[in-house]
Amino acid sequence: MLFAQEGVDSTAIVKIDSTKSTPKKKEVYKNRFKYYRVGIDLSKLVRSTLTDKYSTAEFLVETIYKPKLHIVAEGGWARSTKEGPARNIEFTSSSYFMRAGFDKYFFGKLYKQDLDNAFVGLRLGSASLNRQQAKATLWDPFYGNQSLTFAPDRRLLHWIELTAGFRMEVVKNIFLGWNIRGKTFLNGGKLKERTPIYLSGYGIAEKQPGIDYSFYVLYGFGKQ
Amino acid sequence: MRKAFIFLLIVVAAACSKEEFCIQPSAVAMTMNFKTYDSTLTLVDTPLVDATVFNLDTAYFFVDNALSLTRASVALKKGQDAQTYVIRHSNENDTVLIRYQSDTNFISNGCGYQTYFTLENATSASDRIDSVNITSERVDNLNTNPHLEIIYK
After folding, report:
1. Number of structural domains, chain A?
2. Is B14 in Cβ contact with A195 (below 8 Å)?
3. Predicted ipTM?
4. Domain range for residue A68?
């Protein structure tokens, strides 16, 4: 007899609600950081061959944090030469960039290894710009032209980017994919004068905000 | 595969952009109006007959034998702080001394740089000229108002 109080039904059964007894533990994706994809942006390589004003290359590595959330890091370099038709300003520049963020995927998997999917993502990018000595011409048809010289300098640029795209496995572990990117500088005032033709990671540096495209081929490996 | 190739071509073409194009920036000119007082002491334009405007720092004439001249545009020289301009009309020369400062300004990534000027003082020792007034100090091609008034007696 558990309850001997007067007036209390001693045969009453106390019901225990098992669903409210202990807080449910969050399930951690067991294969977090175990699957990777590495890739190269083919569109940048093609563009580099089509122009003599700049050359650039971009690479990507991503890993699965959750089934619909990938962590992405990107990097690369570029060289560009600014030389106008009238030689108003001339200089060469080189730049290196790092970009990191995440991609959020939309759709569920049709099977366990299914990684074909569309996504949206966010990136923060930074590029180190190294400008060589610049020469400019002060045009003066009456008294004669004069040359200006500007010392080499370095700049650190930052930007934020929204991206969307698609990845598709074409053969086992080989993926093709594209990204469309909208980006804006966080400190673009540093590039108002003597803007390079091309800034690695950002693209055409005079565009603010900028829109760019990528076309990737990727290789996947690891455990899903 | 063909669709992927066409898509790639579109991507590459769409990502190209034209660089800002500029052959060379426009020359920066200082404009001077020629005036006189009429009978009511109102300033009016006074046309100069057979007028030529030049200075000794360049072989070019800014105005060469104009039949009737009420306004002239002349170029200032970077690196100097004063220039004398000669206004020849009716077979006589008048001189105007301009004192100024110059500075280099960025125009655009296509056009590059250009020199702008700030007028400080303008005088004339000629008997035919009553006074010279600076009506707009900044000479930069952004301001189309005349910079000098040369008032004849």
Report:
1. 1
2. no
3. 0.78
4. 29-222
